[in-house]
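Dear Dr. L.,

I hope this message finds you well. Following up on our conversation about the binding site, I have prepared a predicted three-dimensional model of the protein together with 5-amino-5-deoxy-1-O-phosphono-D-mannitol. For your records, I am including the exact sequence and ligand specification that went into the calculation, followed by the structure tokens. Please feel free to forward this to your student if that is useful.
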Amino acid sequence: KKGNYDHFMQKEIHEQPHSLTTTMRGRLKDNSVVLGGLKEHLKTIRHSRRIIFIGCGTSYNAALAARPLFEELSGIPVTMELASDLQDRQGPIYREDTAVFVSQSGETADTLLALEYALANGALCVGVTNTVGSTLARKTHCGIHINAGCEIGVASTKAYTSQIVAMAMMALAIGADRISTQARRQAIVDDLSNLPYKISEVLKLDGEMRDLAESLIDTQSLLVFGRGYNYATALEGALKVKEVALMHSEGMLAGEMKHGPLALVDETLPIIVIATRDGCFSKQQSVIQQLHARKGRLIVMCSEGDASSVRPVESCKVIEVPQVADCLQPVINIIPLQLLAYHLTVQRGYDVDQPRNLAKSVTTQ
Ligand code: M6R
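The resulting structure of the complex is given below.
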């Protein structure tokens, strides 16, 4: 049921304070994280030589957002695999690996084939899914249900943020034996508890994003630049725009800007730069300056109160979002981009919940 909303995608975007609450329910205890489905396997994961994240589309992007925290808290190298590419290459997987499969539906054909492959190679296989009883949930050795509730819109929104939070909790559980990161873990747990409230705050940008969509309705193309924790936000924001608004959009690593993308910059091409506060902030400030020097049509996303530090000229559009721990910021930053994709789609007159040529669950190769 869509309730008071016009579309499932809209409903699912606005449901995120609740879906994130259910993702965390019963799992944050006495300032630590308890994940029943992983408890017995944490020791094996801590001793693995490599963690490999495997998924497709939005699920891959969620894993990419969680990757830096995994590396930081576990100290284990983390690699990323698009499920189809892993199969195409028959990339090496070993008994000493932990392979983490991320899939909202738990039924994506490419992800399940990659799972068969990892099982055959003896890796410990962990599932992160929204679907209890799915093939992924049944065939993996252990895992976490993200408990985001049923997602109907083909564009994944609430599952994305719940996947990131579930994987952040997983990173906290894996790193729980390390004294050196105790204060950091405590700060993240505190911010996890506040996250649903911060999401309701960022959802207030709805009207602003509707107006921004109006100003972009006729553009041919949209770029999104991110880095660090928000490289994934750039990829996921662009995926949403192309998937539902049927507008060409690319998410790019800002660090790669001078290695090609800079040639595209002119007065007409809108570029969203994600420049919220984290260890990459000053680098993003310099990216903004360089894009401005080439007369780029900039839209900057920054932390609340930072507008004057990021805006190269008064006329530059700025989206201010609440600040949380750097590793959780992707959960906040994707929301305005989900809203933008939603409004662009409605204004361009396309089908929001059932985009052209796409299926909710891709069960064939
Ligand atoms: O069910 P899954 O998470 O395995 O699906 C993977 C992708 O097909 C899916 O995330 C797709 O990219 C979304 N429709 C994007 O919104």
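In brief: The radius of gyration is 20 Å.

With kind regards,
A. P.
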